[in-house]
Amino acid sequence: MFPKEFAHTEKGFLEEGNARARAKIPEIAANLLKGLEEFGKDAMLAALTPVKTEPIIYSEHLNLKGSPSKIVCFEGLNVPSIIRPGSCPVQGVWASDRIHVASLALLLEAESGKEVPFAFVEYVGFGIIRKVVIRSSNRREVLKICRRVEKIKAGLMPEKTEEKFCTECTFSEHCVSNSSLMSKFF
């Protein structure tokens, strides 16, 4: 937030935010200490220290643009790292975060010509840093999403599927469910 944004914020709101942030400090400190014990000081510093912050990376070939929170040099490789303020899963990372870092890894690979085998997700509200191995299935999913976006940009709406988000979607009236024969899949 910027100072101008704070100027119009109620004092009680700021005090509540301050109290909530201070209450998280012991948990954050404990998790950072666990990370130090597990990975070691040098590895933790490498995972946290940016080489670049918020660079914009573009690949014409992939028709994809992204901006990691930072790029870090870890084990001799420049890898993307994203910072997440929200909740943290018990193990691993959220699926959406995995796809996000996979897309950033693809962009870095396109830019550098070198494989990016992993990335980091920092859950700052918990002081947890997770290393994410970029699987080939993650790369395929990113490419699949890119193709779907290209089709939508070209005017082809995807076939309607009834999902929990459909009731809130602004495009729901444009969705069409096409009936099909099972024989076309064989």
TrEMBL record:
Pfam families in the cross-refs: Cas_Cas4
Residues annotated as domain DUF83: 98-176
Cofactor(s) listed: [4Fe-4S] cluster
This protein's UniProt keywords: Hydrolase, Iron, Iron-sulfur, Metal-binding, Nuclease
Gene3D superfamilies: 3.90.320.10
GO MF assignments: hydrolase activity; iron-sulfur cluster binding; metal ion binding; nuclease activity
Protein name: DUF83 domain-containing protein
